[in-house]
Amino acid sequence: MNTNAIPFQPEGNNRSDPTPISIAIQTGTRKDWSPSELSVPLVRVTADFLLLLVGTLIGGTIGHLFQRTHSFELSTQSLILGSIIYTVLVLCLLQSDNAYPRVCSLLHVKETETVLRVSIKAIMISLVVCIVARYPVPRMAMLGGWIIGTAFLAIGRVWVLEAVRQRIATSLPRRRSLIYGSRRTARRFFTGALHSPMLGIDPVGFIGSESEHSEAIYSYDYFQRDSRPIFHEPLSVDMLTRLNIKDIYVCDSSISDHGLKTVREIAQAANCTLSLVDDQEILANKCPTRVWEMDGLFVATTEPNDAGRFYSAIKRLIDIACSALLIFLSAPIWALLAIAIRAESKGPIFFRQTRVGKDGKPFEILKFRSMKVDAPKYARSPNEQTDSRITRVGRLLRKTSLDEIPQLINVLRGEMTLVGPRPEMPFITEEYGPWEAARLTVPQGITGLWQLSADRQFAIHQSIEYDLYYIQNRTVLMDVAILLHTLVYAAKGI
After folding, report:
1. What secondary structure does DSSP assign to 448-472, as a single string?
2. Are 449 and 482 in contact (CB under 8 A)?
3. Residue 54 to residues 80, 138, 427, 442: CA-CA distances in angstroms?
4. pTM of this prediction?
């Protein structure tokens, strides 16, 4: 979500020409904090402290048990003191890294990436201090505390953020807001407002176009549980008064100057604040961009976001190491699944299908066969477990995502990567426009943001926001964060 909205400042004159628009950066809807607002960062900091402290203590204890030599005995007091010092250091680094913003990221992956980055800084600082001070610390205890503590903090933060949003945020003062628009930008803004309660935005609903047939819009989330209705009626003063609207957010880049002037006049008459949300499409002609601020000016860069050779090299090394290790460790599972597939249905063990990879290069994707041999190879993928094309073994494979394991071979070959946009079939990519074609500028992956969202039930190219967000923000630590989220939510049966 782009929170750098452009507020309209009416001058109160009666000229027919639009009044000037002053552009300013907004980090929220209010400047004054109430006591209830202070409870949110307090809860988050306290939760982070407890999560990291407990995780470090548990990890340090486990690590010390695996220490080969016990030339230095780690006392309980030393473990507790060291864990507290390390926890305070991490919290200070989190604060300096702006890890407690009023705005939350898409699916909280940025928050997890920040935790990973800060934890690496903290352990490096701790090691340097111990070496300089010549303080003996069991290496396994430090390693165990770092790994378990980081995992506790990364996973726990997501749960805490959701708990804050569901429970504490409802008591915060919020302004009833109407979102003008019902497309991608409107949905992103709606999601950001829900996930960022400190902004004080209470979305009431959407103003849709006459051609809009949907009745509601769901947020970008792990589950489709938050939605708001689409009002199929013209914007009017009576409507704003009836709904007790205080703020209007225009999230429609296709609105004309005349239409924008009309909306502003209605907002003035209803005494509502009007803001224009920049969706990074307005200046970029529907191409992915990086928008940044310079001395009060917004600059949109339409050049592709190149993550750099270092990122590509590290990502490839991680792909090779992880895929080779996972193939080796899961070899017994491969054998059992192969026997089960052949025992139920005669035919090949693997399902092979042509997909389009980076730069439009086709390749053959591998999966464990979950459907009958005579099922059409390029038909629409089954959405229901009761689909007659799916075998009994196939139902288990699809439910557990075990049918995707052979794609580790694609990763090892360099045709795919662990984290990236999902590859699609050629007849779909042939219909891509400039907006969708951005997916093909990076290696296609096994998992990504789309797979973690509730929109995974829809076609990949219909939920392109997740892939574009990843392309513009990808780093090695974000890849690790997505893998961590994938493991957690796969374990929960998503």
Report:
1. -HHHHSGGGGS-GGGGTHHHHHHHH
2. yes
3. 10, 18, 52, 39
4. 0.74
Is 80 within a domain?
yes
Runs of H (alpha helix) within 233-381: 237-242, 257-269, 309-329, 331-344
How buried is 455 (Cβ within 10 angstroms: 0-12 exposed, 13-18 middle, 19+ buried)? buried
Claim to verify: residue 224 and residue 321 sit in the same structural domain: no
Query: Using CA atoms, how far apart are residues 442 and 417, in angstroms rounded to an integer?
Result: 9
477: enclosing H helix or E strand: helix 476-491
Is 455 within 8 Å of 494 (Cβ atoms)? no
Closest CA to 43 of 172, 201, 189: 172
Q: How many CA atoms lie within 13 A of 391 on its CB side?
A: 22
pLDDT in tens, 135-150: 877 788 899 999 999 9
Helix (H) or strand (E) run with residue 300 in it: strand 297-301
Q: Identify residue 48 by its one-letter amino acid code.
A: D
- In which residue are the tokens 């009761």 written? 386
Tell me, rounded to whole angstroms, the distance of Cα 225 from its chain centroid. Answer: 17
Domain's final residue, options 135, 152, 168: 168
Indicate whether 483 and 362 sit together in one domain. yes
Q: Are both 341 and 467 inside the same structural domain?
A: yes
Whether residue 380 has pLDDT greater than 70: no
Give residue 210's identity as a one-letter amino acid code. E
Q: Is the pLDDT of residue 287 over 90?
A: no
485 in Cβ contact with 107 (< 8 Å): yes
Angle made by CA atoms 250, 254, 260, in degrees to the nearest 5: 50
Q: How many CA within 13 A on the CB side of residue 208?
A: 18
Q: What is the DSSP string of 89-133?
A: HHHHHHHHTT-S-SSPPGGGHHHHHHHHHHHHHHHHHHHHHHHHT
User: Are 432 and 319 in a shared domain?
Assistant: yes
> Please, what is the average pLDDT of the chain?
82
What is the tally of helices (H) and strands (E) in the chain? 16, 13
Amino acid 84: pLDDT: 95
Indicate the pLDDT class of residue 22, thresholds 50, 70 and 90.
Answer: very low
Q: How far is CA 240 from the centre of its chain?
A: 33
